């Protein structure tokens, strides 16, 4: 662990530290998945076919929904991100 963490004093605090570190790793992994799906959509927005764009949008929205379901993203944050992605896709397809 690269971060300096003071040693917990009690058994319950030690367990809580183990749990929080484990949850932190999982949360970070999910955030990376969400960002990767978003990046895959936005990077290929201009060059991809409408079918590929729609598939990438569905994938990104699915990842955002799953992160919200696991309480990694707040539901309103998830809704806002999905709406903004859909807005960008619609604008790109209108061009």
Describe the structure.
The protein has 95 residues and is an all-alpha fold. The protein has one domain (11-94): Up-down Bundle (Methane Monooxygenase Hydroxylase, Chain G, domain 1), CATH 1.20.58.110. It is built from three helices and no strands. Helix 1 packs antiparallel against helix 2 and helix 2 runs antiparallel to helix 3. It is elongated. The mean pLDDT is 92.
What's the structural blueprint in terms of helices and strands?
Elements: H1 11-43, H2 50-69, H3 75-94
Radius of gyration (Å)? 18 Å
Instruction: Count helical runs.
Output: 3
Q: Quick one: CATH class?
A: Mainly Alpha
Strand residue percentage = under 5%
CATH-defined architecture: Up-down Bundle
| SSE topology string | HHH
Shape: elongated
The low-pLDDT segments are none
The biggest sheet, with number of strands, parallel, antiparallel or mixed sense and barrel status, is: none
CATH topology, which one?
Methane Monooxygenase Hydroxylase, Chain G, domain 1
Overall number of strands: 0
Assign the structural class, choosing from mainly alpha, mainly beta, alpha/beta, alpha+beta, or little secondary structure. mainly alpha
CATH superfamily: Ribosomal protein S20
Number of domains: 1
Helix fraction by DSSP (H/I, runs of at least 4): over 70%
Distance N to C terminus:
48 Å
What's the pLDDT, averaged over the residues?
92
């Amino acid at each position: 662990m690269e971060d300096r963490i003071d040693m917990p004093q009690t058994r319950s605090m030690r367990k809580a530290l183990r749990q929080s570190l484990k949850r932190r790793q999982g949360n970070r992994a999910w955030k990376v998945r969400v960002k990767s799906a978003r990046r895959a959509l936005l990077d290929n927005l201009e060059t991809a076919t409408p079918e590929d764009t729609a598939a990438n949008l569905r994938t990104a929205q699915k990842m955002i929904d799953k992160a919200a379901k696991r309480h990694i993203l707040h539901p309103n944050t998830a809704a806002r991100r999905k709406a903004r992605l859909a807005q960008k896709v619609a604008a790109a397809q209108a061009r």
